[in-house]
Design brief:
Number of helices: 5
Distance between the termini: 36 Å
Number of strands: 3
CATH topology: Collagenase (Catalytic Domain)
CATH architecture: 3-Layer(aba) Sandwich
Order of helices and strands: HEEEHHHH
Largest sheet: 3 strands, mixed
CATH class: Alpha Beta
Length: 196
């Protein structure tokens, strides 16, 4: 996705269908799975409070994402216009994969939001309230360095994109641990579990 690009409803539908098929192959998109509750909503207008967002997931409605504007917790929103493109996210499908990472965190909170294993692996709590220090070599993208939440979503995005096979360019022990966390997480969820 590039600055100023327009995303049509048809492009979004195709990208969502492709991503859901990828999620099905790793066992995360199946009957009875919690991710089925996540709707992907095409926004006719960009999000006013997050103008740089190429997509966003709502964990809860708040002052920044008010319910009276149509936002609902547990859903993903993709704006029609790309006002800004971050490094590390390259396509509409990547954005959707990334946002499904947030959806996994939302629908499986015991495994991520309240998980000691998550905090140890991603160097902080999912909703950590302070700035984190990351070594660029230990994150899969620049955007992943902004918080444990985004580190997880970026790692999840690449895990889904590469069908669980870690690209050779990621050589750090920290990335290997994060990749293994996502692999173990998807295996547990695919087996029907919602906790470690």
């Amino acid at each position: 996705m590039r600055h100023g690009e327009t995303i049509s409803q048809e492009q979004l539908n195709a990208a969502v269908a492709d991503t859901q098929a990828e999620l099905a192959k790793i066992g995360l998109w199946n009957e009875g799975g919690r991710l089925l509750e996540c709707q992907v909503v095409w926004c006719a207008l960009p999000q006013i409070t997050m103008p740089k967002a190429m997509g966003f997931f709502i964990h809860e409605t708040s002052l920044w994402t008010p319910a009276f504007l149509g936002y609902a917790a547990g859903h993903m929103y993709i704006p029609r216009w790309v006002l800004w493109a971050y490094d590390g996210i390259f396509s509409l499908r990547d954005v959707i994969r990334h946002e499904y990472g947030h959806a996994v965190a939302h629908y499986y909170p015991a495994m991520i939001q309240r998980s000691k294993r998550f905090s140890e692996t991603f160097n902080g709590r999912y909703f950590g309230g302070h700035t984190y220090e990351f070594d660029a070599r230990d994150c899969v993208s620049t955007y992943a360095m902004t918080s444990p939440m985004e580190d997880f979503a970026e790692t999840f995005m690449l895990y889904v994109k590469h069908k669980g096979r870690m690209p050779a360019k990621f050589k750090s022990e920290a990335i290997a641990r994060k990749w293994q966390f996502v692999a173990d997480l998807t295996e547990r969820i695919a087996a029907g579990s919602a906790k470690w």
